[in-house]
Structure formats: structure tokens, C-alpha cells
Design a protein that fits this description.
This protein is of the alpha+beta class. The chain has helices spanning 17-39, 42-46, 71-89, 190-194; strands spanning 49-58, 67-69, 91-105, 109-122, 127-142, 145-154. Strand 5 (127-142) and strand 6 (145-154) form a beta hairpin.
Length: 202
């Protein structure tokens, strides 16, 4: 691959065999993140993130931190949320990650834009739509593996696929204006949000 690739749909000049391998690898990481959360495999899920990864939600649900940093805090917080959903809310979630588009790819950096849909199967027999939004994932290569360095979740209107001025910092560990670096215990605050379970179709 050449040094920098900003990919456009339908472009064929950069689709050599090496790039196709890298595209498959980065999209596998994005899909696997949702599947491993659903199955509760958090040790493996942690291997998909860099040590200094950022996890952002826009807008953050009430009581939920806008930004969480480091692999440990991200996976620990997600594990707490998974346990709360199973034991308190009584729901088994299913993440469907679709419409994956690799928008940037070079030797050690990639960006993937996608849609996520989260459905829930409740212990009382109900089925419902829990969340809908977009992921924008920045991935870095570490040795032979791609890992998520910065995951952004957009749960209102979708972000631009190619923003004119970029998406701000691409450096994990750099704070965004107005963001904080909360402790793991703050992730458990989504419990208050999850307890307000909507009826299917609401």
C-alpha cells in the first residue's frame, strides 16, 4: 500500500490484494466488538482496543459519561453494563453492525463508518429496539493486529461520512472540548438509563 489512502466509494486504483486483506481485517474488528459484548466475552473484547483507547458517545445518555478512556475502563464498564442488563433489566442484547464503509486506510491507521442497531430479547418474552446510531471507528495497527483507538457513537443524526474539516483529533488520549476522563464507576450510571426500558415499537 502507498503511504496514505482516503477511500472513495467505487474507487479501484487502490484495491490491490494487500489493501483488500487490510480492509477485511479492520471491518472484522468493528463487527466483533458488538458480538463479543453480546456474548459477554470481555477479556477477548479488550484485545480489540488499544491500551489508551477512547470511547465517546454523542449525545451521552443522561447519567452516562461522554468519554471513557483506556482499555481497562472501557471493558470494565461494558462488563458492568452487560451484567446490569442481564440481571436487573432482564434483557439479552444483540448488536447488528451494518453498512460498513472503510473511509481511510494507510499502513497503520484506518477509519470505518457504520450503522449499529441494538435489539433486546427480554426475559418476559418481549422483543424491542433499544438503540440505533452510527459508529465511527479509528483503528491503529499494532504489530500484525488492528485495534480500535477511538470509537465514536452517534445516537441522533448521522455524522458526515467525510467531514470537510476532519473529525478533530485522531490522537487517543487527547481530550475533546467539554469532555472528561471519568473513572470506571461512572459507566455504571447507565444503569439508571437502562432501567427505563421502552416498550417495543416505542
Amino acid at each position: 500500500m502507498s503511504e496514505t489512502h482516503r477511500l472513495q466509494p467505487g474507487e479501484t486504483t487502490q484495491l490491490d490484494h494487500r489493501m483488500l486483506i487490510e480492509r477485511a481485517a479492520v471491518t472484522d474488528v468493528v463487527v466483533a466488538a458488538g458480538l463479543l459484548f453480546d456474548s459477554g466475552e470481555f477479556e477477548t473484547l479488550g484485545t480489540l482496543y488499544t491500551a489508551d483507547a477512547l470511547f465517546e458517545m454523542s449525545p451521552a445518555p443522561e447519567g452516562f459519561p461522554a468519554t471513557v478512556s483506556t482499555r481497562e475502563q472501557i471493558t470494565d464498564g461494558l462488563a458492568r453494563l452487560w451484567q446490569h442488563n442481564r440481571e436487573t433489566v432482564g434483557v439479552h442484547s444483540r448488536h447488528a453492525t451494518s453498512n460498513l464503509l472503510v473511509t481511510r486506510l494507510d499502513a497503520d491507521t484506518a477509519e470505518v463508518y457504520s450503522i449499529f442497531t441494538v435489539t433486546g430479547s427480554y426475559t418476559d418474552g418481549r422483543l424491542g429496539l433499544r438503540r440505533l446510531g452510527n459508529y465511527v471507528d479509528l483503528l491503529h495497527r499494532e504489530g500484525t493486529a488492528w485495534r480500535i483507538a477511538h470509537r465514536r457513537l452517534y445516537m441522533e443524526g448521522p455524522p458526515p461520512v467525510w467531514p470537510a474539516a476532519g473529525r478533530g483529533t485522531d490522537q487517543p488520549g487527547t481530550e475533546q472540548p467539554g469532555s472528561d476522563q471519568p473513572g470506571t464507576e461512572q459507566l455504571a450510571a447507565e444503569q439508571r438509563v437502562s432501567e427505563q426500558v421502552e416498550e417495543p415499537g416505542a
